[in-house]
Amino acid sequence: MAGYLSESDFVMVEEGFTTRDLLEELTLGGPQDEGTSFFVADLGDVVKKHLRFLKNLPRVRPFYVVKCNSSPGVLRALAELGLGFSCANKAEMELLRHIGVPAHKIIYTSPCKQAAQVKQAARLGIRMLSFDNEVELAKVARSHPTARMVLRIATDDSCSPARLSMKLGATLKSCRHLLETAKKMNMEVVGVSFHVGSGCSSDPQAFTQSIADARLVFEMGTELGYRMHILDLGGGFPGTEDSKVRFEEMASVINSALDMYFPEGCGVDILAEPGRYYVASAFTLAVRIVAKKEVPSDQTGLDEEDGASPKSIVYHISEGVYGAFNCVFFDNACPMPILQKKPSPDQRVYSSSLWGPTCDDLDHVAEGLCLPELQLGDWLIFENMGAYTVGTTASCSGQQTCQTTYAMSRVTWEAVRGRLLPPEEDTEDMCKPLSCGWEIADTLCVGPVFAPTSII
After folding, report:
1. Are residues 274 and 392 in the same domain?
2. Do residues 402 and 315 make contact, with C-beta atoms less than 8 angstroms apart?
3. Cα distances (Å, whole numbers) of residue 279 to 65, 146, 160, 372, 436
4. Which domain holds residue 450?
5. What is the mean pLDDT of residues 257-277?
6. How many CA atoms lie within 13 A of 63 on its CB side?
């Protein structure tokens, strides 16, 4: 074991004990304060995602995107599994160093960095940084001259809800000039990165074009005398099963493109920066109704139809967009609640909306819901709440505004303690049944593709 995660960091549960069982225990036996909210995090689900990643992308080493969810339990679990980490700011770098992650497993991938944060990366020994323009390159040259630079290129992310290339990434036309400028500044350029867009791209072929473009930039760099050996595929991997494109389909497209443009044995180290992929489905949020208001029919303008009431109900819940539901802003999420108390089939439903606990008109969580009338203190459950909901302002102390209870099955913990896969020097295949969580029946067979992540 690497020693990042211990049994004291999570609740040990037996196989067959589900997330819903733990939620039931915590909501019934927990504090009665109506303002209480909490997450339940299934670390077994995180382990399952890791094995799935290794199985489907055997040539790619994952560097988890810390900004997606920086809760201590997640970071410790992923560090225990041997992942590297992708940071966007000083706080994230310090958080990782605080829990003991070595500098060679951390990359600083934001192309838009403050000079003070570049200096902090240098002090912490973090060497791999990215750039996409001359100003950024000059900034790093002054503050971190021994950095190993990766040139971020723009991509076609038109199918993504979060089009990052509108502001980040160099065009192919500008790449040779940037590489020549880096040479004049005596900066070491070691590779290329890109990002096809956040939010589960609906067109996996975007990876194919981006990998092809990266090949061209590799050739430019080689011509100029650089040792180009890092290809960073970025993120955009789906984190839930209801995504338009399944992870396996996306991985198949990536593998085909890698075989064509960066075949095995070419000496290129291939990285990726998954975020939501690892954590989205692992977190479930429980919140309470803290206030309610009935809006009469003469204000709603609705007509009673098919037994539905024209009355509308506004509910205020114990978390809002400035807390656990910041995914509404950060990730264009549309949260859908599950009632802890199952309503009877003949119970009347009302047009309902959910608002956070503040008086801000932007603190709007969900609209147009058909719900039975709820009471103060009732619990609402939200699944798939692990991405851009937790730790966006976490400190090194790990304090969160919304408490998280981590859980893992005993079988999964025993597998993690055994390091899941053979050590680096072991070349024998390994294939055995492994339950990675509470509701997993599949057997994942993973060859010896795992090695401790490092970019040095």
Report:
1. no
2. no
3. 10, 33, 19, 31, 14
4. 1-42+280-456
5. 97
6. 29
**Nearest-angstrom CA–CA distance, 388 and 39:** 13
Q: In angstroms, how far is CA 31 from the centroid of its own chain?
A: 30
Q: Tell me how far apart the alpha carbons of residues 43 and 278 are, in angstroms, rounded to a whole number.
A: 10
Whether residues 16 and 78 share a domain: the answer is no
Q: Which residues contact 190 (CB under 8 A, 6 or more apart)?
A: 128, 148, 149, 150, 226, 227, 228, 229, 230
Instruction: Write b or e for each residue in 87-113: b if 16 or more Cβ atoms lie within 10 A of its Cβ, otherwise e.
Output: bbbbbbbebbbeeebbbbbbbbbbbeb
Q: Are residues 211 and 106 in the same domain?
A: yes
Exposure of 222 by Cβ count < 10 A (0-12 exposed, 13-18 middle, 19+ buried)? exposed
Structure tokens belonging to residue 210: 């981006």
Q: What is the pLDDT of residues 180-189, one digit of tens each?
A: 999 999 999 9
Global pTM value:
0.86
CA dist 75 and 273 (Å) reads 14
Angle of the 247-261 helix axis to the 205-223 helix axis, nearest 10: 30
Catalytic machinery residues: 359
* Domain C-terminal end among 225, 248, 279: 279
Tokens of 173: 């036309």
- CB neighbours of residue 29 within 10 Å: 7
Same domain membership, residue 198 and residue 107: yes
Expressed in angstroms, the distance from the first to the final Cα of the chain is 22
Looking at the fold, whether 105 and 170 belong to one and the same domain comes out as yes
Q: What is the pLDDT of residues 27-45, one digit of tens each?
A: 876 555 666 899 999 999 9
pLDDT in tens, 61-119: 999 999 999 999 999 999 999 999 999 999 999 999 999 999 999 999 988 899 999 99
Structure-token pair, residue 409: 């099955």
Residues whose CB falls within 8 Å of the CB of residue 197, separated by 6 or more in sequence, listed in order? 155, 157, 159, 160, 161, 162, 163, 164, 165, 206, 236
Please count the structural domains in the chain. 2
Q: What CATH number should be reported for the domain holding residue 325?
A: 2.40.37.10
Residue 37 to residue 320: CA distance in whole angstroms: 11
Judged against a pLDDT cut of 80, whether residue 453 lies above it is answered with no
R_g over Cα of the chain: 24
Q: Is 189 found in the same domain as 231? A: yes
Q: Domain holding 98: CATH number?
A: 3.20.20.10
Among 231, 263, 279, identify where a domain stops.
279
Secondary structure letter of residue 198 according to DSSP? B
